[in-house]
Design a protein that fits this description.
The chain is α+β, with helices and mostly antiparallel strands. The protein is 53% helix and 20% strand. The structure holds adenosine-5'-diphosphate.
Length: 582
């Protein structure tokens, strides 16, 4: 309770006031008493002179017996006790007692002083009067010799009574002044500490998050200046917190839009901050990740070793890591921070896949070119070697050369087409397309080819089929490709069926055959460029047809897929959006 600055100030004030007032009243009491006694002494000194003068005549005339009566008279008039003593200390007269019964007074201090020639005074206990008294004595000189001593005395009880009254007034006044001073001191200390208490309350509120507290400035003293400084600090703090919050929000927004995983790790390898991409990469929610160690999050020792290396060497570490399971490729950059590290994880699996596709593509092209080019080379060399002289052989060779050149031309055309579709350079003429009409045109086109191959080519189209929103020519191109493959990979007596149907808001178009089918493990790859499921049976195909079909269908806003059972047949289906949604 007495810990507060207010109490300390109050107690200090109170002690100071008590000490000062106590000292002052003690001094006053002493001063007043001294002054009072001095006055009294002066009064008694004047009286005793008169008494001495009055007695002098009797001593000169030897009328000793009249002296006691004189003392009585003077005593009665002055109200003091009057004593006359001769040079040997014998009391000659006393206003209060019978001198004959009184002992020798020659040894009394004031009498001794007077007998020595001066004026003597003393305050002491009177054995005669049995109380404290003030004495003043003067010598009575007769013919140049000290013949006796006149003494006047007054009981101090009276003096003390008068002094007591004055003392009570001094003490009472001091007590009142002290009380008023103490009350004022307490009031001042309260007024001084009130704003400090208010500041403490405000600071506590700010500590609990209630920023922007403002205190009223009521004075220009130190406490007022403290309040001003507090208000300034509070406003600045609020601004700073707002700034930091907006910076943090910006940072969070940036982090959340970055596609690469970002993890902020402390010196103990514990994850402190993660972005959305990191949560997706490591399939853990942010709440779960924060607080875990890096190895617990990434579950890969190679990834963890990059971080450990960074924390140990305090140098940036960059590495590409292949993780299991799922065979994903991560490029990891660990950058040292003041304490801990910032780890950036890029999923480069797709990049790697595309690189592989590009490499395969180039090797496939070179392989596909090498075969016809090798044939051409052989044919040309054979002709140069003399076959040209033989007209029939020469014509046959030229025919074969023509076929190989056609193949190369087809491949060049298809590659050009694929690249144009892939790069989006092909302009699509999107309009409502009568799918039945397209199917009929394609069936008509392949009628002869199917008959030649001993196959039946059928159509299965409902009487009412909504129109598709597509480019009619491109749809025909896809269908030609699929029917061409179906006829190519179906043995005589087989059947190829082109069907169309409406499903949801799409039109489904299928080409089903009873052909050789595609092995299950190869099915997912047949839409890749240059992919030929069964090289032996692929005939003269380039392996680009399905890739082109897939790109066209996707450009038209549809999907394409294949189902197949090896030895039984295949069904290729693609969808097109309906022109008018149902
Ligand atoms: P290609 O020009 O070689 O036919 P595609 O891209 O059209 O190239 O076909 C790729 C591969 O898919 C073919 O080589 C073949 O192995 C397989 N394929 C396509 N259609 C069929 C089908 N109807 N029946 C069996 N296999 C097929």
């Amino acid at each position: 309770m007495f810990q507060g600055i207010g109490w300390r100030i109050s107690i200090t004030f109170v002690v100071l006031i008590l000490v000062c007032m106590g000292g002052l009243s003690a001094y006053l009491l002493h001063f007043v008493k001294g002054n009072y006694l001095d006055n009294l002494r002066a009064q008694l000194a004047a009286q005793v002179q008169l008494v001495g003068d009055a007695c002098k005549t009797y001593l000169e005339g030897g009328e000793i017996e009249k002296i006691d009566a004189l003392a009585d008279r003077l005593g009665n008039k002055s109200g003091s006790r009057i004593t006359i003593i001769d040079a040997s200390g014998v009391v000659l007269g006393d206003s209060k007692r019978n001198p004959r019964t009184m002992e020798n007074h020659g040894n009394r201090p004031e009498v001794l002083e007077a007998l020595a020639g001066g004026s003597g005074s003393s305050i002491r206990y009177s054995t005669t009067m049995e109380c404290d008294m003030m004495y003043v004595a003067v010598p009575i000189v007769v013919d140049g010799e000290i013949a006796g001593v006149a003494r006047v005395s007054l009981p101090l009880a009276e003096v003390n009574e008068s002094l007591g009254h004055v003392n009570r007034m001094i003490i009472g006044g001091t007590a009142v002044a002290t009380t008023v001073a103490i009350l004022l001191a307490v009031q001042i200390s309260r007024a001084t500490t009130r704003p400090i208490k208010r500041l403490t309350q405000m600071s506590n509120r700010m500590a609990h998050g209630e920023l922007g507290q403002k205190i009223e400035v009521t004075s220009q003293d130190e406490v007022g200046k403290l309040a001003e400084a507090f208000n300034l600090m509070s406003a600045r703090l609020k601004e700073m917190v707002a700034l930091l919050t907006s910076e943090r929000d910006k940072m969070a927004a940036i982090l959340s839009t970055i596609d690469d995983g970002i993890l902020l790790v402390d010196g103990e390898s514990r994850v402190a901050v993660v972005n959305w991409a990191a949560q997706k990469l490591f399939r853990l929610s942010g709440d779960k990740m924060v607080g875990l160690t890096f190895i617990e999050v990434v579950r890969d020792h190679e990834l963890d070793s990059i971080l450990q290396q960074c924390l140990k060497t305090r140098k940036q570490q960059t590495k590409v890591v292949e993780t299991e399971p799922g065979r994903r490729f991560f490029k990891v950059i660990a950058t040292p921070l003041d304490s801990g590290s910032l780890v950036l994880v890029q999923d480069i699996s797709e990049l790697r896949r595309l690189e592989t596709v590009r490499r395969d593509f180039i090797s496939n092209i070179s392989h596909e070119l090498r075969t016809p080019l090798a044939s051409l080379k052989v044919l040309v060399e054979t002709l140069q070697g003399g076959a040209i002289e033989n007209g029939a052989v020469a014509r046959d060779f030229l025919c074969k050369i023509d076929i190989e050149v056609d193949k190369l031309t087809q491949m060049a055309n298809e590659l050009g087409e694929l690249s144009r579709i892939e790069s989006g350079k092909v302009s699509l003429n999107m309009e409502p397309v009568d799918v039945e009409g397209v199917v009929k045109r394609v069936a008509e086109r392949f009628k002869m080819q199917a008959e030649r191959g001993g196959l039946s080519l059928e159509m299965d189209i409902p009487s009412i089929l909504p129109r598709a929103l597509a480019d009619g020519e491109r749809v025909e191109q896809v269908l030609v490709n699929l029917v061409h493959n179906a006829i190519k990979f179906t043995l005589p007596d087989g059947k190829v069926t082109i069907s169309a149907a409406a499903e949801g808001d799409s039109i489904l178009i299928s080409v089903a055959d009873t052909g050789v089918g595609i092995p299950a493990d190869e099915l997912p790859r047949i839409f890749e460029r240059f992919y030929k499921a069964d090289k032996a049976r692929a005939g003269g195909g380039t392996g680009l047809g399905l890739a082109i079909a897939k790109h066209i269908v996707e450009a038209l806003g549809g999907k394409i897929w294949a189902e197949s059972i090896e030895g039984k047949g295949s069904t290729f289906t693609f969808t097109l959006p309906m022109a008018v949604k149902p």
